[in-house]
Design a protein that fits this description.
Elements: H1 2-21, H2 30-33, E1 35-43, E2 46-57, E3 60-68, E4 94-105, E5 108-113, E6 123-130, E7 133-140, E8 143-152, H3 154-167, E9 169-177, E10 180-190, E11 197-203, E12 206-210, E13 212-215, E14 219-224, E15 234-241, E16 244-251, E17 254-262, E18 281-289, E19 292-303, E20 306-313, E21 316-319, E22 322-328, E23 332-339, E24 349-356, E25 359-364, E26 371-377
Antiparallel strand pairs: 1-2, 1-8, 2-3, 3-4, 4-5, 5-6, 6-7, 7-8, 9-10, 9-17, 10-11, 11-12, 13-14, 14-15, 15-16, 16-17, 18-19, 18-26, 19-20, 20-21, 22-23, 23-24, 24-25, 25-26
């Protein structure tokens, strides 16, 4: 009995000593909070991206939420859409809202934000900070939404921009659906606003432009509606590294596996079976630009191992920056060219022309059908 009590006493002393000497997490200071935090709010399975910015003013923490209004493209993990479950839609553009009653108690940070679509009462967000990350929830009239965030530094932004630049361009991809492989292309290009990038899939039946795009430095995520498979959006995630991509598009009709490789235009040469002879020469072109027709002339000619295009319009003569030709089937060919036409803008425009014998049809890829062409071989 005495032996048992002695052992129990020793165990109690050891436990008490351990509790007294256990490391206690140091409290977070306001200075630790100051800065930009990339924030993701998950509500009903949908991620809403925003950026929470905190600073010290009059001795206390204040903040604001920066977000992209609508479903625009995102160059980083926090430039898409959101600000909370009531994030606005309808058009692209930056948005900002003040964070109300910002409080820091130990490791717990909380704030309120008014989202008009969620009513006039502030939605309260409470998160626990651990190092450079936080996790918590936003209370809404419809329930709680999970909130996660990461402090964003200049070094993070630099690495992200380097990753974005490395992945811009055209990709040869293979999609696999129900065991059947299909070849197509994926295009990632800087958008005209300079705040992100555009994603498009170039398929034999046409071009599918994707509007809701995010990239966190390693994973490209997107959501888009595919009219030919119903109203429910398809959601894709592609891991991108070293010029290769692999992932899945989850669609209402089932998962579509995707794998591909960035086309290295510096090393791209015309293969023997891609002889451009069928498209070389002079072409009379009718251009339709947003309903207005004009006549132009196009000349395609060899330029070393590549092609060069010369376009003659009422505004003058312009040379292409890049031309790529590929044979399509036995009788057709596809020409993609990049050129700056001042009347259409200062940045290069991308055109795709489909040739069939002595005629072709084409369009400016990013014009959504507003700029298209028809051409016939000029009489010699």
């Amino acid at each position: 009995m005495h032996k048992f009590s002695f052992h129990a006493l020793c165990a109690t002393c050891v436990a008490t000593f351990s509790l007294c000497t256990a490391p206690v997490a140091s409290a977070v200071s306001p200075e630790d909070v100051v800065g930009h935090w990339k924030t993701t709010t998950n509500f009903n399975g949908r991620d809403l991206e925003s950026e929470s910015v905190f600073e010290i003013k009059d001795g206390g923490l204040v903040g604001r939420s920066l977000f992209q209004i609508g479903g625009g493209q995102g160059r980083g993990p926090g430039n898409n859409q959101g600000g909370g479950p009531g994030g606005q839609g309808g058009g692209r553009g930056p948005g900002s809202r003040e964070l109300l009653d910002v409080k820091l108690e130990g490791n717990t940070l909380s704030w309120g934000i008014i989202m008009p679509r969620a009513g006039n009462e502030p939605l309260r967000t409470t998160v626990t900070i651990t190092g450079n990350t936080f996790e918590g929830a936003t209370k809404t009239p419809l329930g709680e939404a999970k909130v996660t965030g990461r402090k964003w530094t200049q070094e993070d932004e630099k690495k992200l921009q380097e990753s974005i630049q490395a992945m811009l361009g055209d990709w040869d991809i293979i999609t696999t659906y129900k065991g059947k492989d299909s070849e197509s292309q994926m295009r990632l290009a800087a958008d005209n606003d300079g705040g992100g990038f555009d994603l498009a899939f170039l398929m034999p039946g046409g071009t599918l432009s994707v509007r809701r795009v995010r990239f966190d430095g390693s994973t490209l995520s997107f959501s888009t509606n595919m009219p030919f498979i119903g109203d429910e959006p398809a959601r894709g995630q592609l891991k991108i590294a070293n010029g290769k991509c692999e992932g899945t598009i989850a669609s209402p009709l089932g998962d579509i596996a995707v794998r591909g490789e960035l086309i290295n235009t510096a090393k791209l040469v015309l293969a023997p079976y891609d002889d451009p002879a069928p498209v070389l020469g002079n072409w009379d072109v009718t251009a339709n630009v947003r309903g207005e027709e004009s006549k132009v002339k196009l000349t395609l000619q060899p330029d070393g191992e590549r092609l060069k295009g010369v376009l003659v319009t009422n505004d003058g003569t312009m040379e292409t920056k890049e031309v790529d030709y590929k044979k399509v089937g036995d009788k057709m060919g596809r020409v993609k060219m990049e050129i700056v036409i001042p009347s259409l803008g200062e940045k290069p425009q991308d055109f795709e022309l489909i040739f069939n014998g002595d005629a072709f049809e084409g369009e400016e890829i990013h014009s959504n059908g507003e700029i298209f062409f028809e051409g016939r071989r000029a009489a010699s």
